Amino acid sequence: MAGNPMDLSGATVLVTGASSGIGRETAILLGSLNARLVLTGRSTERLQETLAHLDGAGHRVAPFDFQHAAGIDDWLRSLAAEVGPLNGLVHSAGVELISPIKFVRLRDAEEVLRVNLLSAIMLARAFTQKACCAVPSGIVFLSSVMGMNGSPAMSVYGASKAALIGLAKSLAIELAPRRIRVNCVAAGCVETEMLARSRELSSPGEFQALERAHPLGFGTSRDVANAVAFLLADTGRWITGSALAVDGGYSAQ
């Protein structure tokens, strides 16, 4: 009888943004699939909360602030020296900016691009360093449908998420000879703290329109985590350079 193709026994996976939302739920799911997790984000306390929800043993917390992208190489090299080569990287850390373009400040745009895009570039670079990743291995970037479909007041955020898709496609070709797969999950609106902030910043009519734009309604963090796990596990062994829309039908319209 064949085993579970999504079983991740023996795999070590680094999850960024693991302190809340999609990152936390992804870590919990991967733990239930027998992966060993390295959890990173800015808040040690919140990472410890995630750690308490994980099945299995051998997991660890490794706080890092992705505003400081220049330090990623040394940080990941040191981490791999402690835990061994990584089999997977999930970049879920991100910040959102909801603002009409005329109100966008340079410092806010720079923050979005540093955390959402530049940190992804530097993580991918670090992941490919000697002894940092196993063979085969996989990278999954958390993109967004806002990187595939336009929306008012989401230009900077959408640009950062669209760039992740372009990054994944080029890296997929470059790293295929090394058996490193690179994909994106383009998520729609899910019930997270980020969506709660959008609800606060929008009028009731605007928020209802956003919900109607998702034919299957808003999703959950587990819906997105399922897609990430699918791409990391053996179920995704022949998938690279893809942007998997997990959006309740938002991008189908």
Overall tally of domains:
1
- Give the total of beta strands: 7
Largest sheet: 7 strands, parallel
- Global geometry: globular
Keywords:
7 strands, Rossmann fold, 7-stranded parallel beta sheet, 253 residues
Protein architecture, described:
The structure is a single chain. The protein is α/β, with parallel strands linked by helices and about 250 residues long. The chain has one domain: NAD(P)-binding Rossmann-like Domain (Rossmann fold). It is built from eight helices and seven strands, in the order βαβαβαβαβαβαααβ. A seven-stranded parallel sheet has the order 3-2-1-4-5-6-7, with helices on both faces. Helix 1 packs across helix 8, helix 3 runs parallel beside helix 4 and helix 4 runs parallel beside helix 5. The chain is globular and about 50 Å long. The termini are far apart. About 45% of the residues are buried.
Architecture blueprint of SSEs:
Elements (H helix, E strand, L loop, with lengths): L11 E5 L4 H12 L3 E5 L3 H9 L7 E2 L10 H12 L2 E6 L14 H22 L5 E12 L10 H21 L4 E8 L5 H9 L2 H9 L8 H12 L10 E4 L7
Parallel strand pairs: 1-2, 1-4, 2-3, 4-5, 5-6, 6-7
Helix pairs in contact: 1-8, 3-4, 4-5
